[in-house]
Design a protein that fits this description.
The protein has a three-stranded antiparallel beta sheet with strand order 1-2-3. The mean pLDDT is 92. By secondary structure, the chain is mostly helical. It is flat, with a radius of gyration of 20 Å. Helix content is 55%, strand content 11%. It has two domains: 138 residues, Ribonuclease III domain (Ribonuclease iii, N-terminal Endonuclease Domain, Chain A); 66 residues, Double Stranded RNA Binding Domain (2-Layer Sandwich), CATH 3.30.160.
């Protein structure tokens, strides 16, 4: 649930897509969310860094950076935004809505950051920390348990090259769903042989899943 804002106009701006500003039937804010997103991105990085620093006192800088990247990446923020129903709450044009704007991961992540920026201006940094501790940070347990913070593509490439084999290549084998909600299936190949397969909502996600699959077949190295 979103916190109660003292200045409702800030929240309205955070939820306003640029496409809504010139559409008289949509009673959006006077500005789009983009400036608030800029601020929220910086506040989010600080709050996440601070939380990880205090909750993982024995982890080195490199691991903390990987943890943070996994927590603030688009798919994680979009998932959090969906749980908060931000897509339903957004102000946008009919055209943007028709092309799947309310389900667009990138847009949802941007608006989540804008809400953080708005909350920071409305109630300050402590309120942002409390909000993130309730909404975003609980997702870290799964990220750590499933090692989603690892860059499986890089790790698989290092593993393969250490064996004297050529760099892995990736090929899309299937695309399903409408443009705004596609699912990709991708194979990873070494020496033209399929060594792993993965699916995801983006090509990058599917490649990571394919590399992870290939690593697991090698015995779950690392």
């Amino acid at each position: 649930m979103l916190p109660k804002f003292k200045n409702q106009q800030l929240l309205k701006t955070a939820l306003s897509h640029r496409s809504s500003l010139n559409e008289p039937t949509v009673k959006s804010g006077k500005q789009s969310y983009e400036r608030l997103e800029y601020l929220g991105d910086a506040v989010l990085e600080l709050a996440t860094s601070e939380w990880l620093f205090h909750t993982h006192p024995s982890e080195p800088e490199g691991i903390l950076t990987a943890y943070r990247s996994a927590l603030v990446k688009t798919s994680t923020l979009a998932e959090t935004a969906q749980a908060l129903k931000l897509g339903e709450k957004m102000y946008m044009s009919r055209g943007e809505e028709a092309t799947g704007g309310r389900q667009n991961d990138s847009l949802l992540a941007d608006v989540f950051e804008a809400v953080i920026g708005a909350l920071y201006l409305d109630q300050g940094y402590p309120a942002v920390k409390t909000f993130l501790e309730k909404t975003l940070f609980p997702k870290f347990a799964k990220i750590k348990q499933e090692k989603l913070y690892q860059d499986h593509k890089s790790l698989y490439q290092e593993t393969v090259q250490a064996k004297g084999l050529p760099t892995p290549s990736y090929e899309v084998t299937k695309e399903e769903g409408p443009d705004h909600e596609k699912t990709f299936t991708i194979n990873v190949l070494v020496n033209n042989e399929v060594t792993g397969t993965g699916t995801g909502k983006s090509k990058q996600q599917a490649q990571q899943a394919a590399a992870r699959s290939a690593l697991e077949k090698l015995g779950g190295e690392r």
